[in-house]
Write a structure and sequence with these properties.
The chain has about 180 residues and is mainly α. It has one domain. Helices cover about 45% and strands about 0% of the residues. The protein has helices spanning about 10-15, 30-40, 45-50, 75, 80-85, 90-105, 105-115, 140-145, 155-165. Helix 6 packs across helix 9. The longest helix has 18 residues, at about 90-105.
Length: about 180
């Protein structure tokens, strides 16, 4: 039987000093380690529950395969491989903006409010599945509450998740 060891975010981040006590005016910096701690929260409607420990194979069949960013609706809405090849730096900047937005707001708010001129919703094949709750899901909301006093904002948490999910990429989109 495959054993999965989940890292304790508190022991990983705070023992390494990755989140020094920030002043109330300065948010904590985004980090891949923070994203992993948030991703690995237990419970229904958590990243782990829906997407699985390896970024695919979770309990929600319709969940995006985080291992294949070329299949993500955001990747397609940006123009896919052709747009990526034309200007990789701009493409990746916009991909980050779109994915961080859906993580932060959840699919329903993202689908109705994400309207930059450079994004083609028709190319996505339809809206992102409303089951994608992102940081609005109960496990993520509870996690955010625990780390709010450490300067962790919704924006920092969403960017940290984005940094972490890049590690699942087998398509080579995020390879530098």
């Amino acid at each position: 039987m495959k054993r999965i060891f989940l890292l304790s975010f508190a022991s990983l981040v705070f023992s390494s000093g990755a989140l020094a006590q920030p002043s109330p005016a300065s948010p904590a910096p985004a980090s891949k380690a923070m994203g992993q701690g948030l991703f690995e929260q237990q419970g229904a409607n958590s990243c782990l529950y829906c997407h699985g420990i390896s970024g695919e194979g979770g309990k929600v069949a319709a969940a995006a395969k985080l291992t294949h960013p070329k299949q993500w609706k955001t990747y397609k809405g940006l123009g896919g491989d052709a747009a990526y090849a034309k200007n990789p730096q701009e493409f990746l900047k916009r991909l980050e903006e779109g994915v961080v937005n859906v993580i932060q707001k959840g699919a329903i708010a993202h689908n109705s409010g994400f309207k930059p001129a450079w994004f083609d919703w028709k190319a996505t094949g339809g809206p992102i599945n409303g089951q994608m709750l992102g940081l609005t899901g109960a496990p993520s909301t509870a996690w955010l509450s625990r780390f709010k006093d450490k300067g962790v904002t919704r924006e920092v948490a969403a960017l940290s998740l984005y940094l972490y999910i890049q590690s699942f990429d087998v398509d080579g989109v995020f390879k530098k």
